[in-house]
Amino acid sequence: MKLRHVAVLSLLISSTAAAQPVEIIDASGETVFINSAERIIGLNGSTTEILFALGLDANIVGCDASSTYPKNVQKKLPSVGYQYRLNAEGILSLKPTLVIGREDVKPPQVVEQLRAGGVTMLLLKEPRTFDEAKQRLRTIGKAVNRKENAEALISDLEMQVETLESKLAAREGLPKKKALFLYLRGPQTAFVLGEDSAPGAMIEIVGAVNAAGNIKGTKPMTSEAVIAAQPEVYVLFESGLKSIGGVEGLLKVPGLAQTPAGRNKRVVAMDGLYLSGFGPRCGRAALDLFRGIYEAEGLFAASGE
Known about the structure:
The protein has helices at residues 2-19, 45-53, 73-76, 88-92, 108-116, 130-143, 147-170, 198-205, 223-229, 238-243, 246-250, 260-263, 272-276, 282-295; strands at 22-25, 31-34, 40-42, 60-63, 98-102, 120-124, 178-184, 190-193, 209-210, 218-220, 233-237, 267-270, 299-302. It is of the alpha/beta class.
C-alpha cells in the first residue's frame, strides 16, 4: 500500500510540475507565461527557422512572409502576412497557443488584439552578435520545451565561430577590407545600411570595415557617397542582385563602377535570411561572408542551403 501511495503521489507531483507554465522574459522585460507550445506561429524568418531547427515541424501552424527557410516553407504553411503589416483575424483563425516574433512587429494594436484574444505573445530582441544569437536560441528552446535541441544548435554554432576566429587570427596585423552593403530592389530603390543593421553587424564580425561609415539605420545611396567611400567589396542580398540584372547590371548603376569593388567586379551575394537572420545558420553565414570578402575573386554567392 505504501508503495502504491508513493507511486500515486509521484504521479500527481509530476502532473502538477508538467502543468506549470514556462516563464520567459521578453524584449520589454516583462514575464511571459507560456502554457502550451502545441500550435505555434513564427512572425519572422529567423524565428520560423529556429522553430524548424528545434524539431517542431508538427507544431508550427503558420508563419509570416519573411519566413523563407527551410525551403518551400511558404508552400507548407499558411501565411499570416508580413511581420510589419499583421492582421489579427488571420492569426486568430489558426488558433495559435503561442506566437513568437521580434520586438518591433507592427502594427502594435494587432499585438494588443491578439493578447486580448488570449494568444500568448513572445516578442524578442533581434540579435546582432553571436552571443545574442545563442541567447535567443536558448530562450526559444526553453519556451517550447526543446532545451537540449537548442544546446545542440548552439554547440554547432560555437564550432563555426571557432573556425572564424582562427581565420581572423591568421589575418591579424593585415589591412581590413572595406565592404559596402547595398540594399537594392531594382534600379529605383537603392540604400546603404549602417553599423546597427544585421548586414552591418556581420561585416564587422568578419573583420571588415563597413564602408558606409558610422551611419545608423538605412540611408539612400548616392553615387557621390559610394565613390568617396571607395569600397573594395559590394555585399548584397541575392534577390537584390537579381533585381538589378546581376553584376553587369549592378555596375551600370551610377558610381558603382568607379570604385575598387566595381573595377574588380568584387561582389558577395547572399540569401537575405541567411546573411541577416542571426539564426541557427549564422556561424556558417559569417564564414561564407568572410570567404566572400577575403578569399574569393569576382562574384561570390552563398544561398545557405
